């Protein structure tokens, strides 16, 4: 099909014209007009017809094609790698609920991974948690100590059940992850048919770190809110959805009593 379109561009079929060189732009024009999908096959067909194709044209075109495919493949492989994130998070959260006193020790042992940052820029974080990933902290060690003490005073709770009906739909665009109104709107839709109580998002792709910082909840606005959700004795169900969208990993959590 591609070669028929090329022939239509040729007024004279003499040998001299057939030996003209095709530029990268020509190849792009041909592709756009003829809807060519397998460019490698068409390059071979063009060569068989007597066209001389500079190696740079082929390399330029295939390098663009390879970059686009690599980006797609990278995203697919990342999502395959973290496909068990919801299941792993559910297991971790339930272990914390069932044995909060033991997890208090995990929190205390994690304090050694807190690093204090020296910076003249007030916008820079004062602390980071560094193990497998680097996460900015607001209060640092005091938040960890408070969380550990809180867990020591908690009684064991039954495990939560993953409920698909209260799971938040994932956005299609990366910019929606940064838009706080997206999550609120999705929960608003869920609440029309379900009983979602608490909801929040997380951007940490490592389940162990995500669960830890969720329970520590090192926040200045509403410290401990996430921990209260994880350890709420009235909650029976949890919704977890996660995915790499572009270069960003996002996970959404919802909790429900029924």
Describe the structure.
This protein has twelve helices and seven strands. It has 258 residues and is of the alpha+beta class. The protein folds into two domains: 79 residues, no CATH class; 175 residues, 3-Layer(aba) Sandwich (Pathogenesis-related Protein p14a). It has a four-stranded mixed β-sheet, with helices on both faces. Helix 6 packs across helix 11. The longest helix has 27 residues. The chain is globular and about 70 Å long. The chain starts with a helix and ends with a strand. 24% of the residues are buried. The N terminus is likely disordered.
Low-confidence stretches: 1-39
Total separate domains: 2
Q: Name the CATH architecture of the largest domain.
A: 3-Layer(aba) Sandwich
- What is the arithmetic mean of pLDDT? 81
Strand tally: 7
Helical run tally: 12
In which order are the strands of the major sheet placed?
A: 4-6-7-5
Helix fraction by DSSP (H/I, runs of at least 4): 40-55%
Run of helices and strands:
HHHHHHHEEEHEHHEHHEE
Query: What structural class do you assign from the helix and strand content?
Result: alpha+beta
CATH topology-level fold name of the largest domain: Pathogenesis-related Protein p14a
CATH class of the largest domain: Alpha Beta
User: For the CA atoms, what is the radius of gyration?
Assistant: 28 Å
The N- to C-terminal Cα distance equals: 59 Å
**Sheet having the most strands:** 4 strands, mixed
Shape, per Cα inertia axes: globular
Relative strand content: 15-25%
């Amino acid at each position: 099909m591609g070669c028929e379109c090329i022939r239509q561009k040729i007024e004279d079929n003499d040998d001299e014209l057939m030996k003209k060189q095709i530029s990268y732009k020509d190849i792009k024009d041909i592709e756009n007009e003829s809807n060519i999908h397998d460019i490698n096959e068409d390059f071979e067909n063009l060569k068989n017809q007597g066209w001389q194709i500079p190696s740079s044209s082929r390399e330029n075109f295939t390098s663009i094609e390879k970059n686009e495919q690599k980006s797609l493949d990278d995203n697919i492989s990342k999502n395959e790698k973290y496909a068990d994130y919801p299941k792993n998070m559910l297991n971790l959260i339930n272990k914390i609920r069932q044995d909060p006193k033991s997890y208090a020790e995990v929190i205390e042992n994690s304090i050694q991974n807190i690093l204090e940052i020296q910076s003249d820029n007030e916008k820079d974080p004062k602390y980071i948690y560094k193990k497998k990933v680097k996460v900015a902290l607001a209060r640092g060690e005091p938040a960890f100590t408070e969380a550990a003490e809180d867990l020591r005073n908690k009684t064991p709770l039954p495990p939560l059940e993953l409920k698909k009906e209260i799971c938040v739909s994932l956005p299609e665009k990366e910019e929606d992850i940064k838009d706080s109104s997206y999550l609120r709107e999705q929960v608003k839709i869920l609440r029309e048919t379900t009983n979602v109580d608490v909801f929040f998002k997380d951007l940490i792709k490592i389940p162990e770190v995500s669960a830890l910082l969720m329970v520590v909840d090192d926040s200045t606005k509403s410290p401990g809110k996430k921990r209260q959700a994880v350890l709420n004795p009235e909650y029976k169900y949890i919704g977890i959805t996660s995915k790499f969208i572009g270069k960003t990993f996002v996970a959404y959590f919802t909790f429900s009593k029924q």
